[in-house]
What does this fold into?
Amino acid sequence: MTSPAPMQPDQFRERVQSIEAEIGRLIVGQTEVVRLVLIALIADGHVLLEGVPGLGKTLLMRTLARVIDGHFQRVQFTPDLMPADILGTMMLYEDADRGRSFRFEPGPVFTNFLLADEINRATPKTQSALLEAMQEATVTVGKQTYPLPRPFFVVATQNPLEMEGTFPLPEAQLDRFAFKLETGYPTVEELVEIVGRTTGDTVPSPGPVADTQMLLAMQQLAREVPIAVEVLTYGARLLRASHPTDPTAPERVRDYARYGASPRALQAMVLGGKIHALLAGRHHVARSDLRALAAPALRHRIVLNFAGQAEGLHPDLLIADIIRQVAE
It folds into this structure.
């Protein structure tokens, strides 16, 4: 693959705005979710998207792949789905010249944009197969390792855990996702707009405004944004304050959290903060950028104890306490 052409910050902002505008032709509302999905994509991370059925999670991913003109695959996770159904398997072929031979038949994971729909309906064995591919960007079958395409972006949708027939993702596997996003229910005005767009004689059809090479250039530019040691230290202090045993942890974290976030959370905050800064017209990361990405980067990495679960606390409440407690 050839190296992508360098991109300038003004081009970066213009391209993201074009992508968001094109997605907005079909997706009503969910502005913050769309922006954070794009930030995760440019940060070369993956997203766990939680919400009840029917809120447009699948449509968002399909539209994103169309707008960026990348290869898209969707896998519906079910209890009987096997790892080979995602990764691929060795198949026996026969031809006149070579006779019988085994060849690798790639699975749907070999794509640019993968939608893992209702990931928590599959068994842990199948979940872990996908998450290994996400972490390593490779698939190993037998003794052969196959690289995944670049870019490779996974959005896994998840039903709320109180719904029946689900297998909650373990904490170590949740940690593989850069962000966890939650789709809210549309307002009355948004519901009217959704139905108006989808029940008429014409339905908007977004077209490509970018390609995968341009996306790789955006990813490269994002990594080049500088961050001062003081700002990075502030992010590390936010992370430390999520641990109940840390002296700087807020009272509710000490009372209701069992474990805090891992270093991957800080990596997600910093990479996301660099993109957030570029979109704000700045060429350096500020503390406000890290705060803006704290909730999506931390909410699935803070594990509540029994008391927190019994109280029905949302991790975002603890994250808000952390932001207030940690001084700049």
Remarks:
- The first strand starts at residue 47 and ends at 50.
